Amino acid sequence: MQPTIHPSIKLLLASGLLSLTACGTSLNRAPVEERPISGAAKTTTPASAPVPAAAPVTAAESKPLPGAENAGKPGYYTVRPGDTLIRIALDNGQNWRDLSKWNGLDKPNLIEVGQVLRVLPPGVDAASVAARPITSAKVESRPLDAKPGAAAGGASTTAPGAATASASAASAGASAAVAAPAAARDADEDPSWAWPTGTAVGAGFDEQRNKGLAFFGKSGDAVLAAADGRVVYAGSGLRGYGNLVIIKHNATYLTAYAHNQTLLVKEDQAVRKGQKIAEMGSSDAEQVKLHFEVRKLGKPIDPAKVLPSR
């Protein structure tokens, strides 16, 4: 027989059970989390809290980058991500040391995105330079001889019908029939060109994919200066070119010789057409080759249009 429970006690027990049930429901409820918009930082600041004001811009942050007043003007270049002074100089047909001097760069390796650089000599009319037509250069009909490469570390430089006098001089590091040094020539005069190697052309000029000619050979094949000039760069600081030599022939033309295994010249060194300047290699390339560019006012042109017939 079950005991009799007073009605008031039943009421108290019912109230307590309901309270416990309510508490249990409250304790087991999942917490609410305010998820921020994708990409935004999560914050615990209450919605009613005031939004802090943006930090004031300091004088240093508001200071314009060097040369900003010349942005967009002819003869000036605005630095973009990934640029180096060597690349800018090559693309504008200049010596990177000249760019450094014209722009007063204390640390040439430190240039900033958005910085504006002078890429023409002070006093030069940018409009007149831009108006110069890009035409094929006057060329020699005499082809490169095989002897320079054979005398330079066993390089293969075979080219039929060569003139022996010019070839012998080239193997010694100079051509017997050369014009005056590039510095003494008129800026608009086309150089007297010669082939930079006697090996076969493996890939032709393509303005989008191959801004020069690719010569395939073997390690150690001779790389020769294509014309008289002065070395403006010798090193490996330009990504994608490996061990690189750049020669400036006058105010209009320069040439580039990439992927070498050995460099035989230094910056600011005068060179003659046919002089051995490097040995072919595969630095920063998938195979042994010479990548050769001719640039007129910084613009790559097809070397086959200015080199003599073989």
**Broad CATH class of the largest domain:** Mainly Beta
Low-confidence stretches: 17-59, 131-186
Instruction: Describe the oligomeric state of these chains in a short phrase.
Output: single chain
What is the overall silhouette?
A: globular
What's the β-strand tally? 12
Structural class: alpha+beta
The N- to C-terminal Cα distance equals 124 Å
How many domains? 2
Range of strand content: 15-25%
The assigned CATH architecture of the largest domain is: Distorted Sandwich
- What characterizes the major β-sheet? 10 strands, antiparallel
Output the CATH homologous superfamily of the largest domain.
Answer: Glucose Permease (Domain IIA)
Mean pLDDT: 72
Q: Evaluate the radius of gyration.
A: 35 Å
One letter per element, helices H and strands E, the order comes to HHEHHEHHHEEEEEEEEEE
Number of helices: 7
The percent of residues in helical segments reads 10-25%
CATH topology of the largest domain: Glucose Permease (Domain IIA)
Annotation keywords:
Membrane-bound Lytic Murein Transglycosylase D, Chain A, alpha+beta, 310 residues, 12 strands, 2 domains, ten-stranded antiparallel sheet, Glucose Permease (Domain IIA), single chain
